[in-house]
Amino acid sequence: MLSPRIARQLFVATVAPTMDYASSVWAHSCGIREAAWLDKAQMVGAQAITGAFRTVATAVAEAEASIQPVQERHAQAATRFWINLRTLPRTHPVATLKVKVCRRFVSPMQRIAQVQGETATERMEIIREYALPPWRNRIPVSCDPDRERAVEEAKRVNGIVIATCSSQRRGMVGMGGVVRDTAINKDDEVVASYSITLGLTEELNLYIAELGAIEMVLRCMPSGLCWRDVTVMTSSRSALEAIRRPRQQSGQQIIRQIYDHMKRLEDEGHSLRMLWVPAGEEDFALGPKAKAAARKATEGECRPDVPPHLARSTRIRLAITKQRQTRTLPERVGKCSKQIDTALPGKHTRTLYDPLKREEADVLSQLRTGMVRLNSFLCKIGTVESDTCECGLASETVEHFLFRCAKWTAQREGMLRCSQAKMGNLSYFLGGKAASDGDKWTPDMRAVRATIKFAIATGRLDMDQKPQAH
Fold this sequence. Notes:
CATH class of the largest domain: Alpha Beta
CATH superfamily of the largest domain: Ribonuclease H-like superfamily/Ribonuclease H
Number of strands: 6
CATH topology of the largest domain: Nucleotidyltransferase, domain 5
Radius of gyration: 29 Å
Largest sheet: 6 strands, mixed
Number of domains: 3
Number of helices: 20
Shape: globular
Structural class: alpha/beta
Strand content: 5-15%
Strand order of the largest sheet: 1-6-5-2-3-4
């Protein structure tokens, strides 16, 4: 009786990793019988999340519960494995391994190579076994969660102040920044600024651009200056956290370069620290200037002079997104669900089920799948002799039960208050996307809750109800 959100979290965090352990090794030999075992576990998980009937097709139950099918999880694991393989240093024995074509015996590595052959990995970044030795000092990083205190701290900084920013638009990723010396510049004056186009959005992301902006300005710091305090400010928490705790993450090579620059500055007598400043703060004058410099790098026909390394995080994200776009329900499965919701499978089912209690989720899953404790379905499975509604006017279908049955007129007031014009529209009241809805469609949770409240008030879908004989 857990809520759908908690049940899904438990499934994703405990059940799915156990089922998929080392799937890159054995997924290629997973036959029909083994797949059936995994599908049983998937069905149990989907039932625990939504409360759907056991007779609901596994693909429909997975879509309603918003959990990935086994095959999709295995494909994503293979994609991550293949891309991670290409980020190993050239000195690693596996990095130089050549996968030869063998018809007599095809190894798991060969099968992954055949499937992932179209994934571009030629200029992949190199990620080493560790970012920094444990004895190296870490750069002091300040990330005050309070926005006002963070801005006030940024305004009190003295010395050389560097504000960096990144921009992603028009299919390009760029970075920029400005430098101010508090000893000679006013609050809105800068000593220097820079704008650099990094590459395409298919190769890089804003996180890599932020790291690159910090590395670039530290690299260009002139030598021979007297002892100064150097403070780098950025609005990217992810970049600062990666610099504070460098690991085997994407952008590791840039982080190593940042620490090399820090050592050079310390050897010259300077001190370096980094500070988080929230984006869009007009009180901090350098922020808008850094943003303008970054946007300049993505204007017009800007192109990088040297092709950048592909970011592992971006390559994995794009490959997985491409795999998700091809996911559909099987042709002969879920006829009722497809009529109600043309967006299945989709992320909107989380919006539908996560705010609900378990009892409410049971009701919604019954109505959306068509396998419900109404006479139209109970007659099909032989529980009752007739599919006629108790009102005697028509078959007791989901549509008749929600909109036309005269027995429940009083309980239907909440649905009428939501929208009288859409009474009779199953998709609208059950949170589905109709064929006429546009791309920016979102489910109306007010109507969905009114429908669930109506069904619970009638008591018609209660588990302990006795079948009606006619």
